[in-house]
Design a protein that fits this description.
alpha/beta; globular; homotrimer; 11 helices; UDP-N-acetylmuramoyl-L-alanine:D-glutamate ligase
Chain lengths: ~270, ~270, ~270
């Protein structure tokens, strides 16, 4: 497994897939920088006259509902419909779903187009699956990722999407398989948008390897969480962590990757 | 005083209040990171179908007119009206008021809903109070904060808002009391959005302590300006200051806070 | 030449020109910080009710089509028309032109108002000149800047704009003159928005020196690329480069500037 994850990481650097992002205002800069640091090529575009053109040009589309409004929702729906129609991989990041009816309705509209991958924290995945009526606490999670496994499995069965629940343990669910990743560091939660960055990286990896979104998702999550774990050691707080994380996404070595990877596969 | 300020800072870290921001595109990332570093939990939302829901869910709403347009103005008005109606604390940051008629009209519309706290630089507070017809120089201030005290007092009397004029000296005005804070460093002006960050932090503090917005505002301003002052010493320029400031918001100690605080209370 | 470039840099710090930006969401924070670090004063504004007022107030307007939509295109057209009408310098950054018909149509609409300066990478300048039908690879360039010189000259003759093709060599074209700048470092391409930052800085310099946009453009490009080149040496990757670059824009010395400048003038 570790070899195929590292290969995926190298393959993104080599191919530099173009990743189309319809994402929120808060994280656009971070996610663009994280994609560049990992070797991918980001483009942000949401205008109705061009959004489906961008889906067609790019290797994958990432849709993140963090700062949606009616115009952006229409952009997202058009993009998801196009991706579904032309069989382009796309990633859904349902930021803050559960917090308002508008977010719930938007997420439901997008789910129809069967995302290739869904990534959220436990509260979001549970809200998305309607398994829980628990109140989402804004964009942060009040649940452990492992609490959301049943919801993730239900979503996977319903939509066919690979589902990633990120948290202290990142759980990636597909069919009867799970990957549990135990990398990362709690300080990463004090940096805004690292969940959104995870989704963007998944977009790059799944765009580069559309035939295996399960491994692509695991590779993206492993890259980010290991880079964050190492970067944290050099960081006095969340400000320097954000900076050091970009550096480490850029210069992570195979040795560091293999040394830090804490991954468990669960089948059946 | 210093004890109650430090207590406020600890109380935010403990409660992690959810802070709703309708703010400008330039600073969304910074302000989200500053809120997280201080222990609060940020959410950015402006869509008409959800903006009043967000006001209701959150501890406080921060409205910043930095990059407004007609849709966003309507979001701001709906949010301010809702906050006023359900008695939720809200903060107004009238960025660039005085520069255009559109900003003046928007600020006037929002003032009707009596912000809990208003924070601006001297030029903005003077423009807001119509005390001065001086031309605002964009988003930077051409006036000393102490020149705007009369304007701040007039605004406080008219709206009931605690008014904070930030500058080399931060002046906080309420009824017959003033707090003058002499912390911070001039290099902070070379980092974009630290005024907006101040307003966001005030939102966290006033959301956490709605019964005393005067102290809440002083605590937020003291935290930011002391963190900036200390961070500056480790910084080669504005780039590293932005990073070190987030670290210091996160790891400021009581000893550092007490050692650096330069505060004067003026009554009557 | 080097003396007049350094003079321009000092003159921006002294005058602190107000620069109006209609730019993309991804880079607003970076470009505002870069303008501040270089001594200019940024303002971002796009609302129809105020956008022409901002053009009138500011020293220059920078229009960047990175994340355009119909509303923003109208803002851009209004701003360009106003700048042209009142003879204010304005800069066009045609991000991603060539990628979609919408971007091509928007760029064509804006060209009518004859930008003072156009800055793009080789692919963008070639797409803009219609010289090439090559597919733009998103916002990154697949061409060397020197391949775009004929396109830049054609644009210069047609619109009267100074044209800057940025890349490993930055080529600045006006009438029968060219300046070739060989500063910078490849790692700068892994930081999002440094092209947009270049355009914003050109705005500051041309706003400050509207009578010589050729020299103003060269000064802005030399400042950024030399600052990036020096900052890169202290950087472990693109995260720290972004930070160190802002510091170096702020504290670059005359000695450093003269020592690093690699500039060639070509006439006739």
């Amino acid at each position: 497994m570790k070899e195929s994850l590292w290969e995926s990481i190298q393959f993104v650097k080599k191919n530099s897939p173009l990743v189309h992002n319809i994402t929120n205002y808060v994280v656009m800069n971070n996610t663009a920088n994280a994609l560049l640091a990992a070797g991918a090529s980001p483009i942000m575009a949401h205008a109705h006259p061009e959004v489906t053109d961008m889906v067609a040009i790019c290797s994958a589309t990432v849709i993140n509902i963090g700062t949606l409004d009616e115009y952006w929702v229409e952009s997202m729906v058009q993009a998801a419909a196009k991706a579904s129609q032309i069989n382009k991989p796309w990633v859904l990041d349902p930021v803050g779903v559960g917090a308002t009816n508008f977010r719930n309705a938007t997420a439901a509209q997008l789910l129809v187009f069967k995302p290739t991958v869904i990534r959220g924290n436990a509260s979001e995945i549970m809200a998305l699956a309607n398994v829980s009526l628990s109140k989402t606490k804004g964009v942060d999670s009040v649940h452990q990722s492992t609490e959301a496994i049943a919801a993730a499995q239900w979503l996977n069965q319903t939509t066919g999407s690979v589902v990633c629940v990120s948290g202290a343990v990142d759980v990636i669910v597909n069919d009867n398989s799970q990957i549990h990743l135990k990398n990362g560091h709690p300080l990463m939660q004090q940096v805004t948008g690292l969940g959104c960055t995870a989704s963007a990286l998944i977009g790059a990896f799944v765009g580069n390897n559309p035939s295996d979104p399960f491994i692509a998702t695991a590779a993206a999550m492993a890259l980010l969480s290991i880079a964050g774990e190492i970067a944290q050691r050099q960081s006095a707080g969340p400000g320097s962590l954000q900076v050091n994380l970009l550096d480490k996404l850029y210069n992570l070595t195979q040795e560091e990757f293999y040394h830090h990877l804490k991954l468990e596969e669960i089948n059946g």
